[in-house]
């Protein structure tokens, strides 16, 4: 009684645990064990009983076949020898006796009851007697004994065979009686298991109801307090706090909500700093395009063209110069249309084409239906400038720079391709590492334009929107990126 009470106390002590997960886990384990135990016992019992039945049926079948051998074959074989139809040495009498012994040994291995095994042992000794009589018959025949003497031994052999037959018949009867006892035992076990299963279903139902009420009572009040906490935080009250409910799963959540109220303010401050960094990045992007070197070279080109009285080219480069800065400034707006972005690139390449007319050809192409779509400004021109100065200028002969735009899977896709000097895979890997990391922009030198575009894509769109660069040394480089047609982080 004390042992039973102790087990019950241990079970119910589980539900005083601080962990809801532990309670549910233990409950499931108990329920599963209770539900599978009776079926497992039933299956094991069934397998055991089936094994016993199988052995019983097999032994009965083997014994019946053996009886036919004992009753008919051995007597007929000895009669043929005594009658002179066969010589003793040509007879199968010893093969038949050996077969009887083997069958008895086989049946003995699958017989469990001690009395039945004893009967088989008696039958085995009778077979030994049978063999001795056969040996005597062989000796008499070899000594040319009278037929009457041989017939006497034949009668003895038949008597021993009949005895073996009777023993085996008794064995069959006892085995069948064992099967009846086994069947009754199986019925009792089945009844007991049925009662156990009914009791188990009842107990599991009561246990499940108790578990449900216990777990519900443990989480309802803490959840209500947490709900009130989250509501006040949503309303802007970051000073609110809630005591830990002393439930493992909810302790962490409560602690996190308390910490969240403190961190939200820090996140707001971090967001302000991020926006400031973004503005700095934009200013640096603009400053990168208005470098003194670019201004000096462009103005020198305009002066040179004017001195050469190439007025049409002066007009073209001046218009391109004006359009370039007008679109760069974009009235302070962060976004412009695709057509304006390509116009910005065209203005830049118009200026550079006049300066590098001997080495530069370019083509600009984009789908008309994407012309009015909005994208972040100043994305293509830094890529074009990078392709010109680090790709085409470093190769011999004329270079071709291709700028393209197209729509694909609800995204706006862009590429800047040149057939310049290209890069080795090692250099390309190093550049990708530089522009994808958190390096200081001041240390980026020749890849600052790529870094700036890549960083602004991540800031305004998402972390998956970034530059993809492919290159082959002596063949050229392609820079690709795509942005969603709608949706960005303002």
Automatic annotation (TrEMBL):
Alphabetical list of Pfam families matching this protein: HAMP, HATPase_c, His_kinase
Bilayer-crossing regions: 26-48, 189-210
Top-rank lineage group of the source organism: Bacteria
SUPFAM superfamilies: ATPase domain of HSP90 chaperone/DNA topoisomerase II/histidine kinase, HAMP domain-like
Database matches in CDD domains: HAMP
Gene Ontology CC annotation, any one: membrane
The HAMP domain, residue ranges: 217-269
Compartment(s): Membrane
UniProt keyword annotations, A-Z: Kinase, Membrane, Phosphoprotein, Transferase, Transmembrane, Transmembrane helix
Molecular functions per Gene Ontology: phosphorelay sensor kinase activity
InterPro entries: Bact_2-comp_sensor_kinase (IPR050640), HAMP_dom (IPR003660), HATPase_C_sf (IPR036890), HATPase_dom (IPR003594), Sig_transdc_His_kin_internal (IPR010559)
Claim: Aminoacyl-tRNA synthetase is one of the keywords in the record: no
Main location: membrane
Keyword Phosphoprotein: yes
Protein name: Integral membrane sensor signal transduction histidine kinase
Organism phylogeny: Bacteria, Pseudomonadati, Spirochaetota, Spirochaetia, Spirochaetales
